[in-house]
Specification:
mainly beta
Amino acid sequence: TTTDATLLVNLEEAVYGNYAIEQGTATITAQSTGAPSSSAGTGSTGHATASSAADASLLINADANLALGGGTVALRARAEQYADSLTFMVEEGAFAGINLARAAPGLNQQGLLNGTLAGSGRIPVDTSPEIDADLRLEDTRLNNQVIDQAQVQVVLAGDSLQSSATMQFPDGRLALTGRVTNLDETPRYRITEGDVLNLDVGALLGDTTFVTRVNGALRLNGEGTDLQTARATATLDLRDTRINEATIPRGNIDLQFNRGTGTMRSFFAFAAGGSVALNADVAARDRTLTYQYRARATNFDLAALTGDAGRTSRLNMFVEGQGRDIDPATLVTEGRLS
């Protein structure tokens, strides 16, 4: 025997968290087919490979169409319940012409979004889930940055998660690839690729006073998420980078953290002459971060870095100090300038 049920939902000017839905309709149908069979696994689509939909005890289909931020969202998904697992698949996911400021006013961001979403997976009763998700953007703008194409892929299998993200700008590119393993115990994480080409951070954040052309590479390797036990190393190497009117042919930031204590070492050399070195030692105690820092500027043109093209400054100074916390609401710091 089978049992069918249908749910119809109509939305008008609905608000969910930071998101404002102007209008929407959703149809969800469910069909119970009786005693469940077992599924043998999933293929790339997320559907059972050895059992057909006819073997499932519950079939669910969902269709949704939303008017969001002056644009549209269309979503069609399917789920199948077996005795040993639930499988699901996003058969269609597309969004077009979404004004980010109207769709999510609480985020305080501007932009126009166009793209697609796809995904599939299997959630077993007694083992870890398997999920494959893919988000793509095209002809999109985030604040002042045009994004020609972008793609984010996430694959979760057992206790391992792999992800990659790429963004293609009119004259630049961002590529990140990472992996997290041992999710069931102490996570180990690594960024194996983190390459940046002509990234304008100011445009991405919507800050017109901060113009950059960042070129470099990021690497990260670590394990654990608790500050008292975590260990991690990270490096950012810059090359031919520009911040406002200042050009940095080379620079680097090196971070080391080991079970509650860490160090930061950084150095930046400028094309017009001069350099800046910033070093810090940090410690985490009772979930509070304390630090001591030392910075030295030699023949440094601060006006060029801040974008004041009408002035030239040459600074030689040394700063040292200490502080607690990094939250602006609770931060306490003191220092000495010489």
